[in-house]
Amino acid sequence: MEDLKNQVKDLEHKEPEDTPLQTQEGQRIQKVEDNVRNLWDNFKQTNIRIMGVQEDEREQDIENILKEIVTENFPHLVKELDLQVQEVHRIPNKRNPKRTTPRQIIIKIPRAKDKERILKEARAKKVVTYKGAPI
After folding, report:
1. For the segment 44-77, what is each residue's pLDDT rounded down to a tens digit?
2. CATH number, domain 46-134, options 3.10.580.10, 3.40.50.10540, 3.40.50.300, 3.30.70.1820
3. Which parts of the sequence belong to the L1 transposable element RRM domain (predicted)?
4. d(Cα 83, Cα 71) in Å, to the nearest integer?
């Protein structure tokens, strides 16, 4: 009788071991969570839209426009961030081609965190300038 009580106590105190199905399920859940994290990182847009820069800028100068704007308005960010530009282009005037306002510039940067820092500083400053003119 004493032996039976000891066996019952041993069974009660044993933690249940993961079965192979539970292990596979845990691995599958981890894989899905990793996939969701990667998708979320890809959904974060890394594009910065700049409006108000005159059309007389040449295409070679457009690539350096973000660095010039950041150095002019946020000199402390230049030291902290390593600004890299992947792609730069002006969007076409789809609505009214006769409109005299300059086309917007789309700049794609590799890291979403850099974009967030730049936009946070721009919102705090409220007026961002390029070559002395507000944009």
Report:
1. 677 888 877 877 766 667 778 888 888 888 888 8
2. 3.30.70.1820
3. 46-135
4. 11
